[in-house]
Amino acid sequence: MITSPSSLRRSERSRRAILEAALELCTEKGYGRVTVEAIAARAGVSKKTIYRWWPSKSAVILEAFTDALVGTTPFVDTGDIAADLRANVMGAVKLLSTPPYGPAYAGILSEVHHDDALAETVRTKLIDPRFEEAVDRLRRAQEQGQIPPDADLPLAVEMLYGPVYYRHVLRKPVQDEETIAALVAHVLRALGAPPEP
């Protein structure tokens, strides 16, 4: 069967409505009380439509969170690795501290401990691609001479973003711009990068 352009538009419209409904319900009810039935009712679609595209409510909410994270925290290259890392980490902190995204992601993280399929999806759809993008950005800085050639880039990514997720999971106060600047400076110093002018 050939899909017409109008049906493709309807599918995308339905997908966006479902993702928005899931996030709205997370804000209103909390992650644990959101159901596929409620998402379907809010989005104006059938449960069958949701299950055709996602295996669970967690998968719906994960896609909504991933879309938001990718859209608000691109790995730009201005030629200044310190500034670019500060902007990226700050974007992640702001997203995680803003409803519905922070509570939605906390709910997903609570599910991965007893849902192996969701854990795998989180790794393959969110964590691994973002990790590789971060390593690629650091590699470009390395090629530009801003980071030494022997620096352990994957470890640097964990050093940069580990504190963000640690604070989020434990519901500690979020980092401010000054703290993030200190974190980025410390990680770059640990890599052997020359100090900022």
From TrEMBL:
Keywords assigned = DNA-binding, Transcription, Transcription regulation
Which GO terms label this protein's molecular function in UniProt?
DNA-binding transcription factor activity; transcription cis-regulatory region binding
Asked if the record carries the keyword Cytoplasm, the reply is no
Q: Which residues form the HTH tetR-type domain?
A: 12-72
**Residue stretches in coiled coil:** none
Indicate the residues that the entry says bind DNA.
Answer: 35-54
| Xref: Gene3D superfamilies | Homeodomain-like, Tetracycline Repressor, domain 2
Do you know which InterPro entries this protein is assigned to?
A: Homeodomain-like_sf, HTH-type_TetR-like_transc_reg, HTH_TetR, Tet_transcr_reg_TetR-rel_C_sf, TetR_C
Keyword Ribosomal protein on this protein?
no
The protein's name is TetR family transcriptional regulator
